[in-house]
Task: inverse folding
């Protein structure tokens, strides 16, 4: 490439910023829901709760995603994540459109739970927002329920609904990971000593 010349990709970003951002979000979708769903391929297929498809998150987070997006290429996913062993699990939301923020309700079958999603609270997951906390009883309801819907956001039925199939097994795996105490320095050095045969 001659000096001063610009790549086709750079020119595309300048000429079509909206198309470029849409393409980037479609690439992110392939990580979030585990498949690339371009418009010509129709709607994403429904899937039960499973380990997170984001790189590095498979052993610390699980995800459930909507099976009826408003249009091809859209997605809506909820993540239950263990931020650190010994701490409570956290709740994250990822959506193709504007971020889910503010005061919402998560309705599991007939039970409603108020959830706050502050815009100032950063999520550790890409393209996601994080709830300020997990209401008492929510996870148990999710594990026993059939469908979760998000109320109070711009999402409208049925595009705000997520199946809870296999959620018990998935969520309990994260809860077990978080229930393990975080190893302190003494435990760390005991483990190292045993591994090298000191005692």
Result:
């Amino acid at each position: 490439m001659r000096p001063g010349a610009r790549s086709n990709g750079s020119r595309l970003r300048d000429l079509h910023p909206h198309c470029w951002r849409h393409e980037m979000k479609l690439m992110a979708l392939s990580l979030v829901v585990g498949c690339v769903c371009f418009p010509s391929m129709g709607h994403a297929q429904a899937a039960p709760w499973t380990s997170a498809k984001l790189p590095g998150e498979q052993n610390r987070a699980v995800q459930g995603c909507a099976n009826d997006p408003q249009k091809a290429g859209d997605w809506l996913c909820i993540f239950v994540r263990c931020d650190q062993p010994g701490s409570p699990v956290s709740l994250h939301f990822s959506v193709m459109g504007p971020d889910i923020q503010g005061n919402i309700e998560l309705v599991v079958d007939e039970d409603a739970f108020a959830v706050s999603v502050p815009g100032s609270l950063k999520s550790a997951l890409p393209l996601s927002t994080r709830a300020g906390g997990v209401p008492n009883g929510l996870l148990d309801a999710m594990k026993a329920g059939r469908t979760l819907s998000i109320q109070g956001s711009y999402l409208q039925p049925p595009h705000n609904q997520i199946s809870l199939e296999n959620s018990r097994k998935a969520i309990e795996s994260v809860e077990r990971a978080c229930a393990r105490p975080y190893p302190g320095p003494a435990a760390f050095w005991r483990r190292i000593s045993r591994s090298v045969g000191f005692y």
Observations:
- The longest helix spans residues 17-32.
- The helical segments are 8-15, 17-32, 138-144, 167-179, 185-196.
